[in-house]
Amino acid sequence: MESTRKHMAQCACGAVRFGFDVDPVLVVLCHCLDCKKASGGEALCLLGVAEDDFTLLGGQPKAFRYTCASGNGPDRNFCADCGSRLFTSNLLSFPGLLFVTLGSLDRLEGIRPGMEIFTSRRLDWVTPPDLPQFDTMPG
Ligand SMILES: [Zn+2]
Ligand SMILES: [Zn+2]
Questions:
Q1: In angstroms, rounded to a whole number, what is the distance separating the alpha carbons of residues 75 and 94?
Q2: SS3 call for 128
Q3: How many domains does the chain have?
Q4: How many C-beta atoms surround the C-beta of residue 49 within 10 A?
Q5: What's the gap in Å between 31 CA and the centre of ligand 2?
Q6: 34 CA to centre of own chain
């Protein structure tokens, strides 16, 4: 079976591989506290990918499920071997969409965020990019 997609991605150790074909229309740079905690960085760049375009090509990511006030979810998926964060699924407010981490892609060039969100949490040493800005989530 041919297992090549337009966009190929993998974790840092290569155990988990996945891909998708459609160029992401929604790319956000998020400064929220959860993105800081879970990524270990100042911000996380996430790509919205349709669930039915997403193909797992190797390995089995491990899911950590959040429990929030409105119910169960989302699930944060990562490689259990190397710990790389890969994608978020089961998003109650975005049914049918996964959010893939930019850093998991094999080719990062050509993918640019379309907006910056949770800028209220952006640290003051970060120079804001020339993008639409939202204090929290876009209304
Ligand atoms: Zn790995
Ligand atoms: Zn965030």
A1: 13
A2: coil
A3: 1
A4: 24
A5: 6
A6: 12
Q: Report d(CA 84, CA 9) in Å as an integer.
A: 12
Nearest Cα residue to 84 out of 3, 7, 9, 5: 9
Gap between the Cα atoms of 99 and 132, Å rounded:
19
Point out the ligand nearest to the CA of residue 118. 2
Which ligand is located closest to the Cα atom of residue 119?
2
The CA distance from 94 to 128, in Å, is: 26
Ligand 2 centre distance from Cα of residue 55 (Å): 24
Does any domain span residue 129?
no
Give how far the C-alpha of residue 2 lies from the chain's centroid of Cα atoms, to the nearest Å: 25
pLDDT digits (tens, 9 = 90+) for 93-130: 888 999 999 999 999 998 999 999 999 999 999 999 99
Structure confidence by residue, pLDDT tens digits, 10-48: 999 999 999 999 999 899 999 999 899 989 999 999 999
Domain containing 61 equals: 7-121
CA of 90 to the centre of ligand 2 (A): 15
Q: Report the SS3 class of residue 33.
A: helix
